[in-house]
């Protein structure tokens, strides 16, 4: 929708800053596939001048971008989020605690090193999403290999969405 808009319509599209659009490798690749390669590139030495410049995107594209980020955060294996439930199904209760602690530590390190999104999500998960999970109906039997692959693919997809463009 963004690429097919005429000049008059494109002029009134909301602009998202490059700094926000570059926070996701996967979403950035999707945007560049529609708007052209190099759309999100920042030339060396021009980081400070260009980071606040915006790119006009259709409101549906902005909603899609934000939903990718929100769903990727929900798929991280921490707390009682969707990712926490997936990790409990794959690793069990003890394994979920270990994977969750590693993920929380990674979120904290990424947040302290400069990514505000991860720091805010770390605080949110620590305060609001810690608790006991609703027990599964069948906690004894192992899950199928196909479900393990689906859960692993979900986490890999979430990491691709959350990994920033370098």
UniProtKB/TrEMBL annotation:
Gene Ontology cellular component list: chloroplast; membrane
Matching Pfam families: Peptidase_M50
Tagged with keyword Protease: yes
Segments passing through the bilayer: 60-80, 101-124, 144-165
Subcellular location: Membrane; Plastid, Chloroplast
GO molecular function, one term: peptidase activity
Annotated Peptidase M50 domain residues: 44-94
Recorded topology in the membrane: Multi-pass membrane protein
Key words, A-Z: Chloroplast, Hydrolase, Membrane, Plastid, Protease, Transit peptide, Transmembrane, Transmembrane helix
UniProt cross-references to InterPro entries, sorted A to Z: EGY1-like, Peptidase_M50
Principal place of residence: membrane
Sequence similarity: Belongs to the peptidase M50B family.
UniProt-recorded name of the protein: Peptidase M50 domain-containing protein
Species the sequence originates in: Grammatophora oceanica
């Amino acid at each position: 929708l963004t690429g097919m808009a005429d000049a008059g319509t494109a002029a009134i599209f909301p602009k998202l800053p490059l700094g926000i659009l570059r926070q996701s490798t996967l979403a950035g690749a999707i945007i560049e596939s529609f708007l052209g390669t190099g759309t999100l590139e920042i030339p060396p030495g021009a980081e400070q001048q260009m980071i606040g410049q915006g790119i006009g995107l259709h409101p549906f594209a902005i909603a899609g971008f934000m939903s990718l980020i929100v769903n990727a955060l929900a798929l991280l294996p921490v707390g009682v989020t969707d990712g926490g439930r997936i990790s409990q199904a794959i690793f069990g209760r003890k394994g979920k605690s270990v994977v969750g602690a590693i993920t929380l530590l990674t979120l904290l390190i990424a947040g302290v090193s400069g990514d505000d999104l991860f720091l805010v999500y770390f605080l949110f998960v620590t305060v609001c999403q810690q608790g006991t999970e609703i027990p599964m109906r069948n906690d004894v039997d192992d899950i199928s290999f196909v479900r393990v692959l689906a859960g692993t693919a979900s986490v890999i997809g979430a990491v691709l969405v959350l990994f920033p463009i370098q």
